[in-house]
Amino acid sequence: MGKDEEKGKTILCIEDEAGMLDLFRLILERRGFRVLGALDAQTGLDLMQKEKPALVLLDIMMPQVDGWEVFRQMKTDENLKDIPVIIVTARTQPIDVILARHVAKVDDYITKPFGPQELWQRVDQVLSRKKGA
Hints:
- This protein has six helices and five strands.
- The protein is α/β, with parallel strands linked by helices.
- It has a single domain, classed as Rossmann fold (3-Layer(aba) Sandwich), CATH 3.40.50.2300.
- A five-stranded parallel sheet has the order 2-1-3-4-5, sandwiched between helices.
- Helix 3 runs parallel beside helix 4.
- The longest helix has 17 residues.
């Protein structure tokens, strides 16, 4: 997917750390994406319903409602179930990767800390697969 194709696409970041939201914005807006942020699960789900983003970056470790519950709610909602999801977490245990990719059927997985190039590549790959589907 070229830079022109990315322009205007909305990415929703659901992340309980404001600093991480700022980092996602900084990295992705440079590539022409429109980036929305939600600091909690319910705000994220509400924004998804309203905005229908091209992609969701979803933190797993959040207070009250965690990312897995957000993912479960997305996949059982007819309006949200086809939105691709990249799980974002500080956890690096291999079992998390296995669960994320094989059991939960998320589109990709990225661990903190990550660099701008890694984030761009993951987003590009997921959106390219979605476009080709």
